[in-house]
Amino acid sequence: MPRVPYTGTASEAELERWRAVARQVAGTLAADALARDRANKQPFAEVQLLREAGLLELLVPAEFGGAGGHFETAFEVIRILAAADGSISQLLAYHYINQSGIAFYAPAEAQADWWRRTVEGSWLWGDSVNPVDPNLVLTREGDGYRLNGAKRFSTGSGVGEVIVVNAEVEGSGELLAFVVPREAEGLRIVDDWDYLGQRLSASNSLVYRNVRIEPSDVLGPVTDEPVATLLTPGIQLAFANFYLGIAEGALARGRQILLGRTNAWFLSQAETYSQDVVFQRTVGELKARTAAVAALAEKLGRRFDQVLGGAVSQPQRAELAVAIAELKVVASEAGVDVANRIFEVTGSSSTKSDVGLDLFWRNVRTHSLHDPVDYKKIEVGAYFLRGESQPLSLYT
């Protein structure tokens, strides 16, 4: 049984420390986010920026050389980075969840070695677990396994030192989580991630041809233990935070554009666009919605740590998952709406290519399709009306 090493909740000092780090990194990313998005290159330099800032080890327990931070802090970091660069925020969000597979899947006696190795190698953890693309075959071979098949949408795989894979052992029904180095023999990374947004998330396709999986590569079985299944609500909470961050980034950029305009609409009685009540009303509506989502996100970030640090029952897990689904619904809709409607107050000139306002909409529109938000609404409604939980999965 895994021993989850996370305890307690974040202090204000911890939060402030990492907020400051995240803001500094976000400032660097914001300076050329649009140019990097258009270049669509694998984000090795961006990962190095995260590494040098200490962000890759934020959630690693202090006893193994990490920062000993909390998920609440990690979620805030994700949100701050998303306001500058949604792709790199996604990379880091997935890294935190993938890396925490050590806690959720590995037996207690194996965790120390995994934590030390991730710190010593300064690993970024990618993944290859897309459950709607289960084209993998894991075959026993001696004391290990051979992996064959292909997988799309493998976030971080293009730049991560290691890649977490989930696959069922052929003929056994056992689902294992294991780790494949990016340079593993037989692994081919297909540089085919060319989508509307989140272009630097390194979400490539992977092809496995007789990749050897040693016993030491296995994190552990993927089980339905309540504490182990918290990984899924965790990543949904991460998603909501970077949708929120993108909305906040779009608002900040829109404000900058609006305040920079020295004239007003010809029918307006105001001297400038920012003084026009029509535009103030729209901005006020979008800002208020974003603030409400932020309040819920902050509340659930702390609650996630509180639940994770105790003995987790199935009812507790179900209640938390639904609460996070509620956040996912409002964060998805607010993110897309804010990133879209900010153009209403910045006008046609803000659609000029070098303004870059479209980057926020492209990013949130792309990732908000990760899993249908309508099914999150059903999850919330079924639980509220009948106390029914959705079947356990990597989406629920």
UniProtKB/TrEMBL annotation:
Residues 14-121 form the Acyl-CoA dehydrogenase/oxidase N-terminal domain. Its EC number is 1.14.14.21. One of its GO terms (biological process) is L-leucine catabolic process. It is found in: Cytoplasm. One of its GO terms (cellular component) is cytoplasm. The keyword Lyase does not apply. Pathway: Sulfur metabolism; dibenzothiophene degradation. Belongs to the DszC flavin monooxygenase family. This is Dibenzothiophene monooxygenase. It comes from Glutamicibacter soli.
